Amino acid sequence: MVRVAWTGIVWSRPPITDTLAAATPEWPPGTAHGYHGVSIGHLAGEIVRRISGGTLSEYLAGEITGPLGLDCYVRVPDAAMPRMAKMVLPDVESLRLGMQIPEMADFVTALNDPETLTYRALYGSVVMGWESGNDPRTFQVESPSMDGVASAHSLARYFAAMIGEVDGIRLFGPDLVDRIREPQADGMDMILRVRTAWGVGFAVPGGPFWPAPEKITGLFGRSGATGSFAFAFADPRPRPRLRLCAQRGLRTPRRR
Q1: Phi, psi (degrees; rounded to nearest 5) at 189
Q2: Where's the Beta-lactamase-related domain (predicted)?
Q3: 254 in a domain, yes or no?
């Protein structure tokens, strides 16, 4: 992977999309899976741009968050910046506690080793770190998988519109919801070093990042490292739901 320095435009196209286009797979496609939490946003954003002619943030605002009245953004507008919560950065104690979770030990170790694919995939290919979660520049560029920000209420409303009708708007039909929550990949994640499971575009229960009792099925969603989208999961069945937005980055036994 190419290491890219912050220049003010580096997290936007074309520098990263050109680099992705020139990259080769780390393993034969279809033989394994791995969480690419940074690059997937640029890949998705480029697809949206080529189809719609606009950026992902423009499409989101025009087609989804605007009509639903959501306080939810990719590329945060200046007016909303003062309302953003500050992330509580992880410290040595947080990392130590993370190591106490047996199934997470390999991930935490790899995350702090610049030679691993884990480090390179999550933040080793651009000059960034946990401090970026409190840098206003992080949220004012087009980096769709990293600078998504929402209030808890808007996040709940967003997911509600995926599985049902909200003010006359439904984002996903029942057939698509069934496809989304059907596991497509389940097993050892080559990046996170733990078991993960993925449906179509969303995570599904499986592994330490999303443990769930066997009797609970049909969920889909995603957690987030910096707490902006801490836990946002959708259950199509009629039952109470929870959306949690936390401020502390990284996981500890208490946060679980």
Answers
A1: -85, 125
A2: 16-233
A3: no
